[in-house]
Amino acid sequence: MARTQSNMLPLGTIAPFFSLLNPLTNKYVTLVDAAGELGTVVMFLCNHCPFVKHVNDEIVRIANDYRVLGFGFVAISSNDVEKYPEDSPWLMRDTAHKYNYSFPYLYDESQEVAQAYNAACTPDFYLFDAALKLVYRGQLDDSRPGNGIPVNGRDFREALDNIFNNRKQNELQKPSLGCGIKWKESH
User: Fold this and answer.
1) pLDDT reported for residue 3
2) Residue 123 maps to which CATH number?
3) Are 173 and 106 in contact (CB under 8 A)?
4) Rounded to whole angstroms, how far apart are CA atoms 187 and 184?
5) Residues whose CB falls within 8 Å of the CB of residue 98, separated by 6 or more in sequence, listed in order
6) Nearest-angstrom CA–CA distance, 150 and 145
């Protein structure tokens, strides 16, 4: 299993705009549609990655816990589906149903959105404040498949709590670790 770290987009970066297809509804969802009053979470996920499967249940718990507090959540899959057909939009619908995603799971066919966010791996997490400025990027928590550490979302929950309670973000932000995004050959 290849292990790729996130690229750690510079803090303060304004969230790049997107308009992507939601295979579940067959409608397009934009950054503005997904944004929350207090903050917006953008996650790069995919169907087949063991790192994503390892944290999927906790991602859903976090989204359910924080959406009611004013945070918007959106997941994006950017993998090359010709080489990785298990990440196809049709199977994204199955994944969204299986894990009861309470947020849109969008398909980035051109991979332009992943490039705009400098996304490198799945899962890759970004938290933007109410002004859509990046305040956290990095790991969900210290748990990885097989390392014996329980999945609890500690790092990401702390970042969300810091926005909610108007506290300064932790300076130390550990990169996420997962499967590398499966780029098309033209990348």
Assistant:
1) 80
2) 3.40.30.10
3) no
4) 6
5) none
6) 10
Confidence of residue 2 (pLDDT cuts 50, 70, 90): low
Residue 185: inside a domain:
no
Cα atoms in the 13 Å half-sphere on the side-chain side of 120: 15
Whether residue 187 lies inside any domain: the answer is no
> DSSP letter at 5?
E
* Residues 53 and 86: beta-carbon distance below 8 Å: no
- Domains held by the chain: number: 1
* 186 located within any domain: no
The model's pLDDT over 136-159, given as tens digits with 9 standing for 90+, comes to 999 999 999 999 999 999 999 999
Structural domain boundaries enclosing 29: 4-180
Q: What is the pLDDT of residues 94-144, one digit of tens each?
A: 999 999 999 999 999 999 999 999 999 999 999 999 999 999 999 999 999
Sequence-ordered alpha helix ranges (H) in the chain: 31-34, 50-67, 89-98, 112-116, 154-164
Whether 97 is in a domain gets the answer: yes
Answer whether 0.85 is exceeded by the pTM.
yes
